[in-house]
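Mods, move this if it's the wrong board.
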Amino acid sequence: MRLVQIIHKEQGRKVALVEEPQLRLLNNFTSIYDLATKATENDGILTLLVQENLSDISLEYDAVYEGNSEWKLLPAFDHPDDVSKLMLAGTGLTHKASAENRNKMHEAKAESELTDSMKIYLMGVEGGHPQKGEIGVQPEWFYKGNGSILRAHGEVLEIPPYGNDGGEEPEIAGIYLNDKNGKPWRIGFATANEFSDHVMERKNYLYLAPSKIRNCSLGPELVITDNFKDISGKVQVLRNDNVLWEKEIRTGEANMSHSLENLEYHHFKYDNHRIAGQAHIHFFGADAFSFGEGISLQQNDIMLVKWKGMGRSLRNRLEVSRESEKIVGVKKIK
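Not the wrong board. Structure tokens:
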């Protein structure tokens, strides 16, 4: 089952079921967050809830997807009312190619030495797939931001005035919701472009944290599935309508140094990640990105991410802010 969130300037928000080549609107729910909240109160059966609330109204998906409709795609998941109740975070160094790219950025002084990036990846290879009921090794973890940084299919991803660069990171993100008792539920998965500042990170690996605090994109579809074993896809960068760079990519547990269960445990083991009503978008890492192959993205470059079985491609244009960096002052309470 695949769902989208859309919005109309007069009719407001809606949730729709993907029935290619149509989108079928749902009654009674205006966000997947609300739909999932209701499902957690009914044994987590979201698919039945969708079927029970299908309307007779369908839209042409192509028109919405291409931006030729009064209906616009929203991110595949968000918090409809409060951006502060949605946490975006992720785990890096979960794929060998990612670790190798990071290793190149932070070369050890001697060939016999391993960088911290490669060490933590190898720790995952050794202990990231624990036996059932056991706790595996902890992965790298990073904070991305709150819901205010989230962008939809077709929207721009911006290099801010304080940024050094911006580059695509093609991923799949897990979508989660804590129920009224603080129990986390996985709703499904969505195609994602985690988008990071790799030039800033390359200056010093301790700059990884601020290099991640950038906008990112999700969608267009949220896929209700348990399948996260072996997923293949393709990432492309287009410049002036020509393919500048492309790469076949793979993700899922068969291609990662950690199991999904282990990644989820280490994210939700923290009490403050299990606040009732809090939603989470968690990025599971990238298999390839153009920066690792010497590509520097420019104004108006197009980033495309496509995963088999994950619905339509995610497309975003790069925009470089024309503003100058300005000091943000802080006022004092008297």
